[in-house]
């Protein structure tokens, strides 16, 4: 048999045998590496889904209604000042909760004005403008305590910007704010940027309605059908976090 024929036969036999052992081992090593890396990524991803990062929830300069050193238990609420559900939560749950847990938890409020509420952004601007003079909590309370004065017309959502603006300035005056500075801050790009940041953070966290609350980074999803039920559930979750 000629040398050329022997080479040809060896080639045919090799093709019949399939890939060499070295090729197979190399493929196995690559496959194992892919599986290991993929497994790590899956584990890391599933770990990230449990709780939202503190940075996204509580950025520098976030407004607190209650503050405790170390932020051991942090409650964050994304709210819309013209949202009837938010007003209901305030009157039935969070106003009293703020008092009862004062100094025991960090309670943070963030803006998330919804497009369906025409005065939500002006109200958020009023709250942020008050914050520029150290009076965010006072404006927050005034907006919800006087919800019926500016947020609604009878049974419908109000779109009366002039009336709302006059009311916001009344609340600012009652809080002892410099009214001219308040007016300038309401219209400022800085205040608008703060609201936009809150909305962007909320959107990234999956917020799409208000109120949305997080306890230690985990979204609170009540199962109760009444305000009293939700209040009990939220307090139970906070108490469990305090005890943990």
TrEMBL record:
Gene3D superfamilies per the UniProt record, alphabetical: Glutaredoxin
Identify one Pfam family in the record.
Thioredoxin_4
Q: Does the keyword Transcription regulation apply?
A: no
Q: Write out the entry's keywords from A to Z.
A: Disulfide bond, Membrane, Oxidoreductase, Redox-active center, Signal, Transmembrane, Transmembrane helix
User: What residues form the membrane-spanning segments?
Assistant: 21-43
Tell me which family the UniProt entry assigns to this protein: Belongs to the thioredoxin family. DsbA subfamily.
* Thioredoxin domain sequence ranges: 54-243
InterPro entries, per the entry: Thioredoxin-like_fold, Thioredoxin-like_sf, Thioredoxin_domain
The name this protein goes by in its record: DsbA family protein
| PANTHER family per record | DISULFIDE BOND FORMATION PROTEIN D, GLUTATHIONE S-TRANSFERASE KAPPA
């Amino acid at each position: 048999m000629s040398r050329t024929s022997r080479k040809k036969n060896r080639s045919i036999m090799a093709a019949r045998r399939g890939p060499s052992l070295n090729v197979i081992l190399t493929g196995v090593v690559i496959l194992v590496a892919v599986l290991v890396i993929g497994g790590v990524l899956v584990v890391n991803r599933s770990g990230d889904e449990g709780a939202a990062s503190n940075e996204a929830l509580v950025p520098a300069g976030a407004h607190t209604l209650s503050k405790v050193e170390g932020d051991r238990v942090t409650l964050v609420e994304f709210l819309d000042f013209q949202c009837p559900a938010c007003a209901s939560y305030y009157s039935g749950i969070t106003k009293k909760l703020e008092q009862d847990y004062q100094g025991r938890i960090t309670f943070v409020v963030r803006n998330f004005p919804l497009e369906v509420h025409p005065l939500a952004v002006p109200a958020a601007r009023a709250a942020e403008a008050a914050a520029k003079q150290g009076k965010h909590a006072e404006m927050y309370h005034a907006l919800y305590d006087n919800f019926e004065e500016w947020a609604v017309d009878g049974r419908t959502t109000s779109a009366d910007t002039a009336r709302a603006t006059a009311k916001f300035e009344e609340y600012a005056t009652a809080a002892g704010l410099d009214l001219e500075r308040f007016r300038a801050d309401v219209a400022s790009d800085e205040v608008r940027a703060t609201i936009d940041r809150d909305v962007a953070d909320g959107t990234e966290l999956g917020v799409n309605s208000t109120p949305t609350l997080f306890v230690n980074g985990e979204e609170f999803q009540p199962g109760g059908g009444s305000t009293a039920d939700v209040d009990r559930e939220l307090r139970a979750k906070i108490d469990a976090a305090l005890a943990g």
